[in-house]
Design goal:
alpha+beta, GIY-YIG endonuclease, three-stranded antiparallel β-sheet
C-alpha cells in the first residue's frame, strides 16, 4: 500500500497539506466538505502536489514538515523549484548563522 503527502490549493488562495493512504477518497472528502476542518469552508480545492511514500510514518512526517513551511517554500515545492526551495530553507536566524566573535 502506498501512502502520500499532498498539498491542496484552496479557493481562498491558501494551501492545505495532508497525508493519506487513499488519495482519491480523501480528495472527494475535501471537495464534498465531509472531511470538515480547514478545507470545508475553503472549497473548491485543487490538488497541486502529491508525493508517495512506502510507509505511513514517512508521509505523516513529510506532512508535518510541510505544514511548518512558509507559503514561499510550499510554492517552490509545488513548482518543483528545488534550487529556490534549498535557498528558502537556509537559516535566516542571526544566532544560528554563527556570529563572529567580537
Amino acid at each position: 500500500m502506498a501512502y502520500c503527502v499532498y498539498i491542496l490549493h484552496c479557493a481562498d488562495g491558501s494551501y492545505y497539506a495532508g497525508s493519506t493512504s487513499d488519495l482519491e477518497m480523501r480528495l472527494a472528502q475535501h471537495e464534498q466538505g465531509s472531511f470538515g476542518g480547514y478545507t470545508a469552508s475553503r472549497r473548491p480545492v485543487h490538488l497541486v502536489f502529491c508525493q508517495e511514500f512506502a510507509e505511513a510514518e514517512e508521509a505523516v512526517a513529510a506532512e508535518r514538515r510541510i505544514k511548518g513551511w512558509s507559503r514561499s517554500k510550499k510554492s517552490a515545492l509545488i513548482a518543483g523549484d528545488f534550487d529556490l526551495l534549498h535557498e528558502l530553507a537556509k537559516c535566516r536566524n542571526e544566532t544560528s548563522h554563527g556570529k563572529q566573535n567580537e
